[in-house]
Amino acid sequence: MDVRKRINAGFLGLVVLLAVTVGGWLSTTIREGHGQDMYAEVRRGIGLFGRIYEEIAHRYVEPIAVDKFVQRGIEAMLESLDPYTVLVEKEESAELQIMTQGRYGGVGMRIGMRNGWPTVVEPPFEGTPALRAGIREGDQIIEVDGVSTKGLSVSETAARLRGPKGTPVTIKIQRPGVDEPLEFQLIRDEIHPKDVTYAGIVRDGVGLIKLSRFSRNAGQEVREAIQQLQAQGARALILDLRNNPGGMLEAAVEVAENFVPKGELIVSTHGRVKEAEQEFRSQTNPVWYGKPLAILVNRYSASASEIVAGCIQDLDLGVIIGSPTYGKGLVQTVVPLDRDTAVKITTAKYYIPSGRLIQKPGVFNRESGVFLQDSLAASDSSRIYHTRNGRLVRGGGGITPDILVAEDSLNALQAALLMKSMLFNFAVEYATRHPELPRDFTVDDTIIEEFRRFLERNNFDYKVEGEESLDQFRQVAEKAGFLASLEPGLKQIDQILKQVKAKEFESSLHFIREELQREIAAKLWGTRGAVEATFDDDQALLRAVEILGNEQTYTSILRGSPKPATAKR
What we know:
The chain is an alpha+beta fold and 569 residues long. The protein has 4 domains: 3-79, no CATH class; 104-191, PDZ domain (Pdz3 Domain, Roll); 196-334 and 346-401, 2-enoyl-CoA Hydratase, Chain A, domain 1, CATH 3.90.226.10; 412-532, no CATH class. The chain has helices spanning 3-34, 37-59, 66-79, 90-101, 129-133, 154-161, 218-231, 249-256, 304-314, 412-419, 422-433, 445-457, 467-480, 483-507, 509-532, 539-548, 551-559, and strands spanning 86-88, 104-106, 111-114, 117-120, 140-144, 147-148, 168-174, 182-187, 189-191, 196-203, 206-211, 236-240, 265-270, 278-281, 293-297, 319-322, 330-336, 342-351, 384-386, 392-394, 403-404. The strands form 6 sheets. The chain has a 6-stranded mixed beta sheet with strand order 10-11-12-15-16-21, with helices on both faces. Strands 1, 13, 14, 17 and 18 form a 5-stranded antiparallel beta sheet that branches. A hairpin with a 5-residue loop joins β19 (384-386) and β20. α1 (3-34) packs antiparallel against α2, α1 runs parallel beside α3 and α8 (249-256) packs parallel to α9. The relative contact order is 0.09. Mean pLDDT is 85; it is low at 1-33 and 562-569.
């Protein structure tokens, strides 16, 4: 393809994108009174963009990749709007397909980056080729079909693992404690990832359901989990939406239908075009209604999680416990452009039954100057709303729990242990050496001492506050030639920093024990073991069990009586 043909093809793609982007609202804009001026503005904009694109591609002093050039232009255009209006390319498109269809062709592993290699970060899904072959959490994927994964991203590795059902894939794995790499020849199958990652009785007839995301099957999975717990004698229920980033709007509605009476409003959407004005009401009878219910949320509960939590709060169907949620209440419509590319466009906002807007203010890029009016920026942060029982709730985005349980903030050591996968890696090694560990084990001083030695062997280190500035000062002093005269004083500071780090380790022992307990349990007994290992230390969960176990307290919260004191650790 010559340069001119490539330019024309790229420009045609841009025109298609612009047509799709503006096409959905063009007729509505005209109806609003702009007349044919908008058509003319769009034509002029496309023509100007295309002319600049073509001239630069022909005349720029250095050769340019014209396809990447137009992509950068598209990305810059979308960035002028909001963080959620984005171009979705092949790998992200595959993730969207999994979310909307609830299945994919692959081997059934969830992978993440650990120590520079794609690594199996959770036990493989039940009944999948990976689980049947004996692949474990902690296995490093070093080759897929003879291609090294060193330097590949997680999404690139995942793309190589996925494929049509019935097709083969050869995976080479490096397993901790095993000298030689292991080779697995798997046949891909249709994988159905589970959104409900745990369902069980915590204690005293209180059931727990952990929902990790909202894909196509979330509503049905929650319904089945509730029925399972009811059969086990559950008299109260906790739905854990912490760290759940959301997903499909339809899935959020279907999850809420398990608790909301038929005909009740769950959520509504409002935007500029007629199609964005929708109400979503429960279409089925709930399976859990009029019984004690608690919803756990935190700052990473977003979007669909906030729809469910907000709906339950507004209708006084349960108690919300945890920390304030993320505040993501914008609706994205996915518009396919070709087989591998789509554009996600923010088309509406979510409003829960009381009328509150979920979205926090300040998300739209008003500094770009592309907005003509303030309708999208309007915030309800100063408004007061009321629940079904008359309880006062405020706008301003996100869901504020009825019972606040403060989240622990990470210190420098704790953040470094997580970022460098030290806890994960130690747990993989320890579980390999101790497969006989009983389920009721505790992380005692012996394990903590082993962990200290593990950190030393792996040369673990991190920076405390001010240490980077000290390193920079050393460099300046060395260049200036007076470092030697400062060394005695700097060595004293180094000793102080070592003492600070030693004290930080001691003050973090509770965190380290909790994390090691969960990680080791996960490696030995899977996700179920990991969840159950947190029961005795999860403050929000313990608070929920306490409230659900006291009918008077639970009822007083929903009726708007004085709230119990905020829980603190």
